[in-house]
Design a protein that fits this description.
The chain has seven helices and ten strands. It is of the alpha/beta class. The protein folds into two domains: 3-49; 59-221, 3-Layer(aba) Sandwich (Alpha/beta knot). A hairpin with a 2-residue loop joins strand 2 (30-38) and strand 3. Helix 2 packs parallel to helix 7.
Length: 225
């Protein structure tokens, strides 16, 4: 390899000829490799295939109402670090600003790939094309459990609710509202489709914070943190 990737290895990461690295191919298979650095060019000589990682106890899907400005970039990066399997950008009644489909989804996919590399994750989360809230609700049957953090949910601590909500669950979707929150009608459509509302306590979290908090809590609750 040459150019940016070679520079990142030799200048940013300060890797030298003979150093051992881990290589992950497009299918998620990982290998130990030895670097060969010569004349500004970097090659990797594969030395050993690595065992696949353990399967996550809980597959998490984050359905995120698209926030303003570049906040979705932050959500994608951090959700990738937290091991989210799939991210669904959602357009809701109160989604702020405008969303141009062309280019944005590809940008988020690039960010997810970069974040996966940075945190040592072998797989990259799927990034769906944006869905409307009704389109998202139509697919809730594909998840074992769907949680909607909502400021008007019954204020029961998650430590008391999660054992029951996660019992026997292998996949969970987290639906996060926009800056203005979900409307009552949207929450009703979600619960009618099988979702469950949960409380995140007395503090109202920002849209770019709430989903990451719940992801971290679910990771902890299922033994992955």
């Amino acid at each position: 390899m040459r150019g940016g990737d070679a520079r990142k290895l030799t200048v940013v990461l300060r890797k030298a000829d003979g150093d051992e690295v881990e290589i992950v191919d497009s299918g998620g298979a990982a290998f130990k490799a030895m670097l060969v650095v010569e004349s500004g060019r970097v090659r990797a000589r594969l030395t050993e295939a690595l065992a696949p990682p353990a399967v996550e106890a809980l597959q998490i899907v984050l359905a995120q109402a698209i926030p303003k400005a570049s906040k979705m970039d932050y959500v994608v990066e951090k959700a990738t670090e937290l091991g989210v399997a799939r991210i669904i950008p959602v357009l809701t009644e109160r989604t702020a600003g405008t969303f141009a489909r062309a280019g944005k989804t590809e940008r988020w996919r690039r960010l997810a790939r970069s974040a996966a590399q940075q945190c040592g994750r072998r797989d990259v989360p799927e990034i769906d094309e944006a869905s409307t809230w009704d389109e998202f609700c139509a697919q809730l049957a594909t998840f074992d459990r769907t949680l909607i953090p909502w400021e008007l949910a019954e204020p029961v601590p998650l430590r008391d609710r999660l054992p029951g909500l996660l019992a026997g669950v292998r996949s969970a979707a987290i639906a996060i509202g926009p800056e203005g929150g979900f409307s009552h009608a949207e929450v009703e459509r979600g619960t009618d489709s099988g979702a469950v509302t949960i409380s995140l306590g007395r503090r109202i979290l920002r849209t770019e914070t709430a989903g990451l908090v719940v992801c971290g809590i679910l990771r902890y609750a299922t033994g992955d943190l």
